[in-house]
Amino acid sequence: MHEIGIVRQMVRTVTAFAEENGIREIREVVVDCGELSLVIPEYVEELYPVAVKGSILENAKLNIQMVPGLAECEECDEIFNVVENKGWCPNCGSFEKTVLSGKDFSIREIIVPEGS
Predict the structure, then answer these.
(1) What's CA 34's distance to the chain center, in Å?
(2) What percent of the chain has pLDDT over 70?
(3) How far apart are the C-alpha atoms of 36 and 47, rounded to whole Å?
(4) What pLDDT does residue 2 have?
(5) What HEC string does 31-60 produce?
(6) Average pLDDT over the chain, rounded to whole?
(7) CB neighbours of 110 closer than 8 A, spacing ≥ 6?
(8) Cα–Cα distance measured from residue 26 to residue 78, given in angstroms and rounded to the nearest whole number
(9) Which fold is adopted by the domain 3-111?
(10) Mean local confidence (pLDDT), 61-80
(11) Is the distance from CB of 91 to CB of 45 less than 8 angstroms?
(12) Distance CA 17, CA 107 (A)
């Protein structure tokens, strides 16, 4: 379960950002979780409360936005969802593709209350 390390690093990153910018309270953390990232969102949600206990994020909501795993077929240039099509181009049937999105797990936004 590599999600433990991912959640801990996310907490360290957001905490460091808050300290560097004089932020005293965080209301919400929005993250992008790629469909092809191998990160299981349910595990991240389960681990989050434990990882943020006693930190500036303790009362902050975690908002996970799923990013579809899109690819471009190298044979016919079709853009398609890799998961929905099990890696095969729905247009020409080729398995040769360039992944365009959905491989990353990243912090998109940190929402703070006004005046923080």
Answers:
(1) 6
(2) 97
(3) 20
(4) 82
(5) EEEECCCCCCHHHHHHHHHHHHCCCCCCCC
(6) 95
(7) 14, 17, 18, 23, 26, 28, 29, 30
(8) 41
(9) hypothetical protein PF0899 fold (3.30.2320)
(10) 98
(11) no
(12) 12
Nearest alpha carbon to residue 62 among 88, 80, 39, 90: 39
Q: Where are the domains of the chain?
A: 3-111
Residue 15 exposure: Cα atoms within 13 Å on the Cβ side:
14
Backbone angles phi, psi at 16, to 5 degrees: -60, -40
Q: What is the mean pLDDT of residues 84-109?
A: 97
Instruction: Show the tokens assigned to 101.
Output: 């999105």
Could you tell me the pLDDT band of residue 114, with boundaries at 50, 70 and 90? confident
Residue 115 has what pLDDT?
66
Quote the CA–CA distance of 79 and 97 in Å, as a whole number. Answer: 9
CA-wise closest residue to 75 among 65, 89, 62: 89
